[in-house]
């Protein structure tokens, strides 16, 4: 199984992938129809054997840290998704000077938290009462991985 990521600049393709995971990844009352991908951010297409299986959105949060938002299509979660995530992290090391990759995952998604940990991320804290889903405010688990830790994954 060959896996890679590469920059994706087509907003139509980005939106088509995002639509398939929108109900899981968006907060209540965020309207998909009016949402547009921010093309000043990095969008990586994740490919397994040349098939697009999802996206990774990266954007700077400080001068040394990025935030990553994975959007893997449900039918491709599992082994291919882990390889895609490692490819995305390696892309950061090979193509940027950032030293840290962070993510925040709502605590109502323990499977996604386990996925991030399996990919090498470390729990670093909790962003309390910061995500609205199904009419309830939830905490988000804060996770991160450093450049050195990404390099050790190889």
Description:
The chain has a seven-stranded mixed β-sheet. With 154 residues, it is of the alpha+beta class. The protein is built from four helices and seven strands.
Quick take:
The protein has 154 residues and is of the alpha+beta class. It has 4 helices and 7 strands, in the order βαβββαβαββα. The radius of gyration is 15 Å and the shape is globular.
| SSE order, one letter for each helix or strand | EHEEEHEHEEH
CATH class: Alpha Beta
Could you tell me the radius of gyration in angstroms? 15 Å
What portion of residues belong to β-strands?
35-45%
What is the overall shape?
globular
Average of the residue pLDDT scores: 96
Number of domains: 1
Treating each run of at least 4 consecutive H or I residues as one helix, how many helices? 4
Distance N to C terminus: 17 Å
CATH superfamily annotation: Gcn5-related N-acetyltransferase (GNAT)
Strands, count: 7
Please identify the structural class as seen in this structure: alpha+beta
Spatially, the strands of the biggest sheet line up as 1-2-3-4-5-7-6
Report the CATH architecture.
3-Layer(aba) Sandwich
| Low-confidence segments | none
CATH topology heading: Aminopeptidase
Helical fraction: 25-40%
Main sheet, how many strands, which sense, barrel?
7 strands, mixed
